[in-house]
Design goal:
Elements: H1 2-18, E1 20-25, E2 30-35, E3 40-44, E4 50-56, E5 68-76, H2 80-96, E6 101-102, E7 112-118, E8 121-132, E9 135-144, H3 151-169
Length: 170
């Protein structure tokens, strides 16, 4: 019985490990895991800043110009005051977006969560910030609010963003 439980636990761990892919920026100073079924749509791993962007497929966006995307951006900034300026700049930029509204339902104080419009479509944004080895790192998850988007898809999207955030926090 114990060997079956161990085998089952091993299979679950293998399936979980296979569901993630590892990425890095700035020569490995920034590393994170993301769901392996999220295709990379842009990668800029030289210069300053460096960026990896993912597109997260949602059937509800088929036939529209909308898309869900996740970006991790790293920028050499030097010190804590420059990092705070980076965070403040992102907050100011968010507030200037058309239809900006803070997500009041979110009890998560470790991230900036808000709604804003892209064209005629309302989007939900979630941003996390990290200061590591003289680098400012920003995780930004953006998804359109569409009637046809399933609750399961939203939960998977949030889970993927959580995975990246947790791996960046290490």
């Amino acid at each position: 019985m114990k060997s079956r439980a161990l085998l089952f636990a091993t299979l679950i761990a293998s399936a979980t490990a296979a569901a993630s892919a590892d990425f890095q920026l700035n020569g490995g100073s920034v590393h994170f895991s993301a769901p392996s079924d999220w295709p990379v749509i842009m990668q800029m791993s030289e210069g300053n800043p460096q960026v990896i962007a993912f597109q997260v497929k949602d059937r509800a966006t088929e036939g529209t110009e909308e898309s869900s995307r996740v970006t991790v951006t790293s920028k050499k900034i030097g010190d804590g005051s420059a990092f705070q300026a980076m965070v403040n700049g992102a907050l100011d930029k968010a507030k200037q977006q058309q239809g900006y509204e803070q997500d009041k339902e979110s009890a998560d104080s470790s991230s900036l969560r808000y709604y804003a419009a892209e064209g005629k479509t309302r989007y939900h944004y979630r941003e996390h910030f990290y200061f590591k080895n003289g680098l400012g790192v920003q995780l930004r998850c953006a998804r359109p609010i569409l009637d046809k988007t399933s609750k399961e898809w939203v939960a998977d999207f949030e889970k993927g963003c959580d995975e990246i955030a947790a791996s960046l926090a290490k």
